[in-house]
Sequence to fold (347 residues):
Amino acid sequence: MDSEFSSNRYATPTNECEVPVRHPDLCFEDGNLAIVARKQYFVVHRGLLCRHSNILAEQITSTDTAGASTLEGRLAMPLEDDAQDIAHFLSALYGLTHESAMKNFPVVSAILRLSTKYEVKHLRETALVKLLRSWPAKLEDWDKREQAALSPEGVYSPRSTLPYPLLIIKLGRETNAFELLPSAFYDLSRNLPSQLMDGYTDTEGVHHHLSDDDVGKVLRGKEHGARFFSTFIVTELEGRGRSANCAHRDDEQPAKRTCQMAFEAVTFELIRDLNGMVRNRNSDPLFTIADSVVMQARDDQLGVENKTTFRACEACRLEYAVVVKAARETFWRQLPIWFEVGLKQWG
Fold:
């Protein structure tokens, strides 16, 4: 290792005499550039970096001057980024990142951050595609994501497979990936206000919190969603009449009111939010509106207090299902507006 680097101005700020450690994997014997990220360095090919990033090319040029520091006889270029993030970024740049690794949030978030910072377009697009699978812009993709988060018992438990939405919001802000924000804001709004204010502590003990501005947006968006849900109950369920093709239209009373009574029972269930609590889905209007159709066709389940005394006929259920589908699509399209995210296209 060249002696001049250990005492130059690019050494780790906390200890000017500390020498960085060679990365065990991302050091190529034919490399001609040493990237120094805090306490670690990587021996890579400047041609590859220059081909994919004009910003890195300019930085290499400005670093490669008379008297520049070297490592292992190669130009040493310091970067202020986290060493682990640099490792993920370089692995992706060299095509060494496996598909399975891209499902790991620390990996894909590092790639998105640095591909955005250094303007590596193809890596940014790849990272966004991965993230948009879980934080989508389309309602149908959100429904698939929610279905995948169900346990075999039907209990909703997304935190075992998905990062906390607060982290997605912060990442979206940092990288201008605003298309991630509406679904992440909605996801976070399903938490209690106290949980929102407490922030989030990750597995490494690092505490994260939203800015006051984003906290306000979550709360206002949550209120918009609650009002939409209340309006839906009033306009589409309370006093809902039967379909013109109702199977009970020619019956005598009280059988003639079977479908109306069925929808009254649904209204009562929604107001109590019983199904939301049982399934760990309270404060989730999108789910609850959809479930108002399902609960009319769902078989009674042992140990669950959702037995349907009255069931609407097929004609009435199908007519109501069309209303629910339209309401959920309208709800989804409003998310960027409710959470104050400026997007030209959504949904």
Q: What stands out?
A: Confidence is low (pLDDT under 50) at residues 6-15. The radius of gyration is 27 Å. The longest strand covers residues 21-27. The chain has 14 helices and seven strands.
